[in-house]
Structure formats: structure tokens, C-alpha cells
Amino acid sequence: MKINKIFTLLLVFFSLCAGQNELELAKNAYAQRDFKKVFLLYQKGCDKGDLYACYALALAYRDGDGVAKDSKKAYEMLDSLCAKSVFGACFSLGDFFEQDYQKASLLYQKACDGEHIGACYKLATLLRSHGESQKALRLYEKICQSGEANSCAFAGEIYQKSNATLSQKYYQKACELGLMLACEKVGE
């Protein structure tokens, strides 16, 4: 069964909102890989109006974690949550449209505007793949400031063509963040 990193993070968010008993139940269920029980806890939270629990529930439907996979239900839930500015939902909804540049970029942009770093990264990658390197560069620089090494390296790569000093600055930062491939670019 596929374990989604976002699903795991949402377990933490939901757990923070849950009562102590539910927190322990969710932790134990997750540790035992009892995704059905985790799903039921998310369902309970969603029924109480917890938007993050609803988001986790949508991801469970999308991935088939603890419940039969249901892309249509996941899409509907994510769409509704994105309309309520649950930016993780906008990010996940964007993944449904990876082949549709316009729709995906709008959804990733909305999530990025809400400070969802993963969405900013996806948007930058999408922009770059469509020849919009300067827009991508601004996003990579923003993401790099949050400590994401690959974004620093991509900023360095884009600057390599126009500004050797900035290129080296970003490769150095990526290297300091542990990206060994960037370390090889420092001093080139």
C-alpha cells in the first residue's frame, strides 16, 4: 500500500487538533500501519468540520489508503477544499491536471500564494519546462530561502547563463544544504 508523505504530515496536523484519546489512537493506528483505522479517525474529524481531516480523507480516497481508491470522490473533495483555501488541496488537485498546463499552473499558483512550498516547487518546474525560466527562477529563489537544496541548485543552473556570481552563490547554498551535485559546481 502506498504511503503518501502528505498523508503522514496530515496525521500530525489532525492529531494536534484531536483530543488526547484520538491522538493516541491515531498514532497507534499509524504506527501499526492500520490505515483503515486512521481513515476512520479522519472521517470522524471531517464529519466534525475539520478541513485538514477532510483533506487527509481526500488523499486517502486518492491513494486508496484505508479505503477503496476513488479518484472521483478525491477530486470532488479536493476541489471543494481548494475553494475554501485549503492550499494543500489546491496542490493535490493540481496533480490531477499535470497534462493540462493552464489548469495545473493556476492550482499550483493558488497553493503557492498560500505559502505551500511543494506547490511553489511544482509550479517552478512546470514553468521551466514550458520555457518560462525567469518566472521559475523567482520561485526557485523563494523556495531556496526556505532551505530546499534542489531549488537552490536550479536557481544556480538558470543563473549560470547570465550571472556567474549569483550562480555560484546558489550552488554554494545548495552544497551547504547537502546536495553533493551542487558541491561539484562550486568553483566551476
TrEMBL record:
Catalysed reaction, written as an equation: a beta-lactam + H2O = a substituted beta-amino acid
InterPro entries for this protein: HcpB-like (IPR040239), Sel1-like (IPR006597), TPR-like_helical_dom_sf (IPR011990)
UniProt xrefs under Gene3D superfamilies: Tetratricopeptide repeat domain
EC numbers for this chain: 3.5.2.6
This protein's UniProt keywords: Antibiotic resistance, Disulfide bond, Hydrolase, Repeat, Signal, TPR repeat
Signal peptide: 1-18
Family: Belongs to the hcp beta-lactamase family.
Protein name: beta-lactamase
Originating species: Campylobacter magnus
